[in-house]
C-alpha cells in the first residue's frame, strides 16, 4: 500500500487536441472509477505534465502543476514516474463540472521499482551470508540469485525516462545506480572452498564481462585477482595466462597518460531556493583499471578538482603495482 492524497483535476474545462470535450467525457465518468496517470513528455508548456486518462484512453485533464512537481508531501510525482515509479488514481467526487481524484504513490515511501528490487537483492544476500558455514551450497544459490537481481536493478534504472534523459542531454549518466555491490567475491570464495574450481573460474570470467558500474571495493578486487590466479594454476598449471607485451604496454600508458584509465562524471552545482543554501559540488568518478568508484562532495570547485586528482593518483598507484606484479609473476612463470 502506497501513500494517497486528493486533488482536483486541472484543465478539465478545456477541449483535447483532437477536439473532444473533456466535460462531455467527464459526464460518462463515475465515482470510484480507476484512472490512468501518464507522463506527457511532448507537452510544450510544462515539462512535468501528467495527463489524467480514462482506461478508454480519453483524457479528462492534468494533474495540477504544483502536485506534479514540488509537492512537498509526495516528493514530486513527475520525477517519481520518470525514475520508474508508479502512481494510480481514482475518482472520488464529481460536482459542478469539477472532478476530484485520489492519487496513490505506489511503493513504501514512494520508492521506485528498482529500489524495491534492490531491497529484495539485499535480503537474499543477507540470508546467504548467514548460511555460509552451515549450508554453503544454499548460500551460493542465494548469492547467485542476489547477483542476478542486482543486475536487474541496473536494467530497470537504464529503462527509466530519468536515465535516458540524462544520456540524451549529457552523453552519460550522473551515477544513479544501485547502492549494493555484486556478491561475486563471496560466490567465488565459497566455490573455491568447495573445490568447485571450474565453476569458480567461470563465475570470475562472467563477472569480468559485466558492465558493473557500481564496482567492487579494492579488497574484494584483490581477493578476486588472487583467486583467479590460484584457480587457473590448479586447473591449467601449464597455461600461460600472462601477456608480457600487453602488460608492459599497459604500464607504459598508465605512466604516460593516466587519463585513458579514467572515466569522469559531471560536476554539478545545485541550489535550494526554498532554503537559500548552496548545495556542494558533487562528482562521481570511476577508475577503469581497478573497477572502483566513489562520489566526492565539496563546496569549493577548485578544492573538489584537487580531491578528484588526488583520488585518481591514489588509484593509479594501486593499479600500477598490480600491473607490475602481474608482469613480474608472468616473467618468473616463463622462466626468464
List keywords for this structure.
336 residues; alpha+beta; Alpha-Beta Plaits; 3 domains; 6-stranded antiparallel β-sheet; 11 helices; 46% helix; 17% strand
Please describe what this structure looks like.
The protein is an alpha+beta fold and 336 residues long. It folds into three domains: 3-109, Alpha-Beta Plaits (2-Layer Sandwich); 112-239, no CATH class; 246-336. It is 46% helix and 17% strand. The chain is built from eleven helices and eleven strands. It has a six-stranded antiparallel sheet with strand order 1-6-5-2-3-4. Helix 7 runs antiparallel to helix 8. The chain is elongated, with a radius of gyration of 27 Å. Residues 271-276 have low confidence and may be disordered.
What's this entry about, in short?
With 336 residues, the chain is α+β, with helices and mostly antiparallel strands. The chain is built from eleven helices and eleven strands. The strands form three sheets. It has a six-stranded antiparallel beta sheet. Strands 7-10-11 form a three-stranded antiparallel beta sheet, covered by helices on one side. Strands 8-9 form a two-stranded antiparallel ribbon.
Overall residue-averaged pLDDT value:
83
Going across the biggest sheet, name each strand in turn: 1-6-5-2-3-4
Helix content, binned percent: 40-55%
The number of helical elements comes to 11
Strand content: 15-25%
Shape: elongated
| Class of secondary structure makeup | alpha+beta
Rg, alpha carbons = 27 Å
Report how far apart the termini are: 67 Å
Number of domains: 3
Given as residue ranges, the uncertain stretches (5+ residues, pLDDT < 50) are 271-276
Largest sheet: 6 strands, antiparallel
Amino acid at each position: 500500500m502506497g501513500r494517497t492524497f486528493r486533488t482536483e483535476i486541472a484543465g478539465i474545462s478545456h477541449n483535447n487536441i483532437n477536439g473532444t470535450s473533456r466535460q462531455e467525457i467527464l459526464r460518462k465518468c463515475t465515482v470510484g472509477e480507476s484512472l490512468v496517470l501518464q507522463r506527457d513528455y511532448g507537452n510544450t508548456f510544462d515539462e512535468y505534465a501528467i495527463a489524467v486518462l480514462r482506461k478508454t484512453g480519453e483524457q479528462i485533464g492534468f494533474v495540477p502543476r504544483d502536485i506534479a512537481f514540488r509537492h512537498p508531501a509526495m516528493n514530486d510525482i513527475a520525477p517519481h514516474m520518470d525514475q520508474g515509479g508508479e502512481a494510480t488514481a481514482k475518482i472520488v467526487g464529481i460536482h459542478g463540472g469539477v472532478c476530484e481524484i485520489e492519487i496513490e504513490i505506489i511503493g513504501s515511501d514512494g520508492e521506485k521499482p528498482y529500489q524495491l528490487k534492490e531491497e529484495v537483492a539485499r535480503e537474499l544476500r543477507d540470508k546467504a551470508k548467514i548460511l555460509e558455514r552451515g549450508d554453503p551450497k544454499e548460500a551460493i544459490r542465494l548469492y547467485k540469485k542476489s547477483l542476478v537481481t542486482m543486475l536487474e536493478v541496473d536494467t530497470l534504472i537504464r529503462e527509466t525516462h530519468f536515465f535516458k534523459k540524462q544520456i540524451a542531454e549529457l552523453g552519460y549518466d550522473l551515477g544513479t545506480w544501485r547502492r549494493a555491490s555484486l556478491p561475486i567475491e563471496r560466490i567465488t570464495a565459497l566455490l573455491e572452498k568447495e573445490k568447485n574450481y571450474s565453476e569458480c573460474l567461470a563465475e570470475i570470467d562472467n563477472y569480468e564481462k559485466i558492465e558493473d558500474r557500481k564496482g567492487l571495493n579494492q579488497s574484494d578486487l584483490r581477493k578476486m585477482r588472487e583467486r583467479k590466479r590460484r584457480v587457473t594454476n590448479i586447473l591449467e598449471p601449464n597455461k600461460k595466462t600472462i601477456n608480457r607485451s600487453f602488460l608492459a604496454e599497459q604500464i607504459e600508458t598508465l605512466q604516460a597518460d593516466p587519463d585513458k584509465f579514467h572515466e569522469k562524471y559531471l560536476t554539478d552545482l545545485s541550489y535550494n531556493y526554498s532554503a537559500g543554501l548552496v548545495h556542494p559540488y558533487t562528482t562521481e568518478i570511476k577508475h577503469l583499471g581497478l573497477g572502483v568508484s566513489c562520489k566526492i562532495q565539496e563546496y569549493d570547485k577548485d578544492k573538489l578538482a584537487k580531491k578528484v586528482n588526488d583520488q585518481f593518483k591514489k588509484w593509479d598507484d594501486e593499479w600500477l603495482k598490480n600491473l607490475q606484479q602481474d608482469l613480474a609473476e608472468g616473467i618468473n612463470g616463463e622462466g626468464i
